[in-house]
Design goal:
Blueprint (H helix, E strand, L loop, with lengths): L4 E2 L4 E3 L2 E3 L4 E2 L3 E2 L4 E3 L2 E4 L3 E4 L7 H12 L6 E3 L5 H4 L2 H7 L4 E4 L1 H9 L8 E4 L5 E3 L4 E6 L9 E5 L4 E3 L21 H4 L1 H12 L3 H11 L6 E3 L10 H12 L5 E9 L4 H15 L5 E5 L5 H10 E11 L2 E2 L1 H12 L6 E7 L6 H12 L4 E9 L8 H18 L1
Parallel strand pairs: 8-9, 9-10, 10-11, 15-16, 17-18, 17-19, 19-21, 21-22
Antiparallel strand pairs: 1-2, 2-7, 3-6, 4-5, 7-8, 12-13, 13-14, 14-15, 19-20
InterPro entries: Flavodoxin/NO_synth, Flavoprotein-like_sf, Metallo-B-lactamas, NADH_oxidoreductase_modular, ODP_dom, RibonucZ/Hydroxyglut_hydro, Rubredoxin-O_OxRdtase
EC number: 1.-.-.-
Cofactor: Fe cation
């Protein structure tokens, strides 16, 4: 059964929702599912913008059959070749053998690399600034390399002001009928998934995102059609501002994330004591996470959101507790910058984790600050350490106020 929605008068969403997939890219949990967005333009020529994951191919084909009503597909525009968008290309070619594929040279290389039989079909390679008319609509192509693959481009419909943005401006979460951003409470129900999507999928590539935002600022964008998540037709500046902050690695909020790694609950108790102390002193924008049972994609998302990060780790085999070390490595890999860290260390006979975490932050990461105040524990938080806890809380609050 077809499931389509009008985007504009002659543009249709022909994608699909997926509630069966539990891990996006086989790593990131998606409890609310995900959408694979594709768009069909019915002009003098018919145009499909991107395809869908192989698991959703049948839905895409049913949607297209319903709308085309026997017409041929004239063009297939591929903005991004990642398999969750490009896997159905061959099926489209088999059903519409006269179609012309439009994409970048690197995208055509990737199609062949993935084993797609495209060389018996008409191909049109495009570069930055090229245009193509489909009748009433004329589009221009804008390169977007490393947002977040090297072949990526975005396509701008200059006629209606629609930006087909590939993986930019996307989000985790299935649409479930509600296609547009103004049909949902985005701040309440979607922003966390959108942030987690950006920070874990695109977060490493801040400079390329900034380059794309600079290009986009010169376009008269009235609507953004991403490959995942809602279509933006109102309050577009809100989401562009989020992308600008995230890609410059600037925090959204002044606040504290406390991430602890605890074997028997003693380091956890210190983390909770610090959270309570901060709240007592008026800093209530505090979140606490156990790195052992919180998925790292959530930890990364919160690290991008907040200005201050407290790492509380037990010493393990004279090193950093493994899951805490993994969190540090992921922050480095995703290029997180411009944060202030505070440290809590614990060790029953050789307390090494604090020095090792500080060394990692200062030597392996960019533009980070580590506060001088540190809480050091031997096995558990004893009463004689209350003054250190107080000093640590005061140091964090002073740092936050100093940045305001």
């Amino acid at each position: 059964m077809y499931c389509v929605r009008n985007v504009t008068e002659d543009l249709y969403w022909v994608g699909a929702n997926d509630h069966r997939l539990t891990l996006f890219e086989n790593i990131h949990p998606i409890p609310r599912g995900v959408s694979y967005n594709a768009y069909l333009l019915l002009d003098e020529k018919t145009v499909l913008f991107d395809t869908v994951d192989w698991s959703a191919c049948r839905q895409l084909l049913e949607n297209m059959d319903y709308l085309l009503q026997g017409r041929q597909l004239d063009y297939l525009v591929i903005n991004h070749m990642e398999p969750d968008h490009g896997a159905s290309i061959e099926e489209i070619l088999l059903r519409f053998p006269k179609v012309t594929i439009i994409s970048t040279p690197k995208a055509f290389m990737l199609m062949r690399q993935f084993g797609f039989d495209i060389d018996n079909y008409t191909q049109l390679e495009v570069k930055e600034g090229d245009t193509q008319s489909f009748g009433r609509h004329t589009v221009t192509f804008v390169n977007a390399p490393m947002v977040h693959w090297p072949e990526a481009m975005v396509t701008f419909d200059v006629t209606d002001g629609v930006l087909f943005s590939a993986d930019a401006f996307g989000s985790f979460g299935a649409l479930d009928g509600k296609l547009f951003n103004d049909e949902v409470d985005f701040e309440r129900d979607w922003i966390d998934d959108a942030r987690r999507y950006f920070t874990n999928i695109v977060g490493k590539y801040g400079a390329p995102v900034q380059a794309l935002l600079k290009k986009a600022s010169k376009l008269d964008i009235k609507m953004i059609c991403p490959l995942h998540g809602p279509v933006w037709r109102s309050n577009i500046g809100y989401f562009i501002e989020k992308y600008d902050l995230w890609s410059r690695y600037e925090p959204e909020e002044k606040g504290v994330m406390i991430a602890y790694a605890s074997m028997y609950g003693n380091t956890e108790a210190a983390a909770q004591a610090l959270a309570a102390k901060l709240c007592d002193k008026g800093m209530t924008n505090v979140v606490v996470y156990d790195v052992s049972n919180t998925h790292v994609s959530q930890l990364i998302s919160e690290a991008f959101r907040l200005s201050h990060i407290v790492l509380a780790s037990v010493t393990y085999n004279l090193g950093i507790y493994p899951v805490m070390h993994s969190f540090l490595s992921d922050m480095k890999a995703l290029n997180l910058q411009n944060r202030t860290f505070a440290l809590i260390e614990n060790g029953s006979w050789a307390c090494k984790s604090g020095d090792l975490m500080q060394k990692f932050i200062e030597e392996e990461m960019k533009n980070m600050t580590v506060l001088n105040e540190r809480l050091s524990m031997a096995s558990t938080l004893h009463p004689d350490k209350v003054s250190e806890l107080e000093t640590l809380a005061d140091g964090i609050i002073a740092s936050i106020k100093g940045e305001e």
